[in-house]
Amino acid sequence: MARKKGPAQKGPAQTPPKNAAAPAAGEKTAVEKTVPALPGGTNVAHPPTFTEFLAKDVTCKVGDNVMLPPTTMRVRPGENVAILGENGAGKTTFLRVLSGNLEPSGGTVTRDGQPVDERDPATRRIISSLIGPIAGFRDMTIADHLILVDQTWGGDRGGAGDRIAAVLNRLDILSLANRYLSEVSSGQRQLAELAMALLRPSALLVLDEPEQRLDAGRRAMLAEVLDERRKQGSSIVWVCHDPVMAESVATRIEHFPQGGRRVSQDGSA
Ligand SMILES: Nc1ncnc2c1ncn2[C@@H]1O[C@H](COP(=O)(O)OP(=O)(O)OP(=O)(O)O)[C@@H](O)[C@H]1O
User: Fold this and answer.
1) What PROSITE patterns does the annotation carry (predicted)?
2) Which of 59, 93, 206, 262 is the best mutation target for the ligand 1 pocket, counting ligand atoms within 8 Å of the beta carbon and taking the most?
3) Helices in 99-233 by DSSP H: which ranges?
């Protein structure tokens, strides 16, 4: 199909036309006028915060197939909520609904009374999620991906190297920084994707089975990292198939039974 002709095909958007007047001090450049404001940054004066996420009676159906039976859960700052349950119980579907990636068939998800939608910059500023594998770029190294994430989320250029080295070092994959995603093992790739989710600022981490493909030692390391993150002020909601790991680090465990209505154990919903 022929692509519509437009300004984007005429050359790099950053190149101002010859003789174009430079923007006056304080005036937005052409790119800044076109590209929406970044959702957040590591160098913002006020880090992202929230008072509560509330998923109320959320359900998902496709035809007669119930992907998620009515579920209610409240998440507050500083909580680490681990969700356990059998295959097919709707755990991943719930994470997608909670993070505004999937619209529920019924019920609501709100953050401090506002609807949660991942396309909304206010939501993107608060939630960092890793639900399913990321596609990635074939010709970009792990470090390149991390630079992209860091700069997209407003990190200052000068500090990017240190931030990226720190997260890679914490996950014990600094030596893989210059590898391509296709050149690492499945467990190493899991850690690289976790690095991307951890690098950007957020107040709520939403992770689907982050322990998958990790050996026992690296699961223990991940538990420590999640605990550090919570102590730094972030909440975490994650699905886990390792009850021992969940017990070791979660402040609350939610069991998703097959079928049946679920109400958060915190009793407040
Ligand atoms: N796109 C889809 N269309 C229809 N049904 C789906 C779809 N995706 C998932 N399901 C169904 O929804 C239900 C919940 O799936 P979900 O992936 O949320 O389960 P889960 O608890 O995360 O399972 P697991 O532990 O195996 O990852 C399952 O019965 C699944 O077959």
Assistant:
1) ABC_TRANSPORTER_1, ABC_TRANSPORTER_2
2) 93
3) 121-126, 142-152, 157-170, 186-199, 216-231
CA separation for the pair 156, 203 (Å, rounded): 19
Tell me, in angstroms, the distance from the centre of ligand 1 to residue 216's CA: 27
Rounded CA-CA distance 37/124 in Å is: 12
Residue 70 burial (C-beta neighbours within 10 Å; 0-12, 13-18, 19+): middle
Atom from ligand 1 closest to the CA of residue 241: 25
- Cα separation, 206 vs 111, in Å, equals 14
Structural domains in the chain? 53-263 (3.40.50.300)
Regarding the beta carbon of 90 and ligand 1, being less than 6 Å apart is answered: yes
Ligand 1 pocket check for 65: Cβ under 6 Å: yes
pLDDT < 50 positions in the chain: 1-17, 41-44, 267, 269
Q: Structure tokens of 99?
A: 């993070």
Question: From the CA of 129, how far away is ligand 1's center (Å)?
Answer: 18
pLDDT in tens, 40-54: 544 445 678 999 999
- pTM recorded for the entire structure: 0.84
> What was the pLDDT predicted at 27?
73
Q: How far apart are CA 195 and CA 169, in angstroms?
A: 10
ipTM given for this complex: 0.97
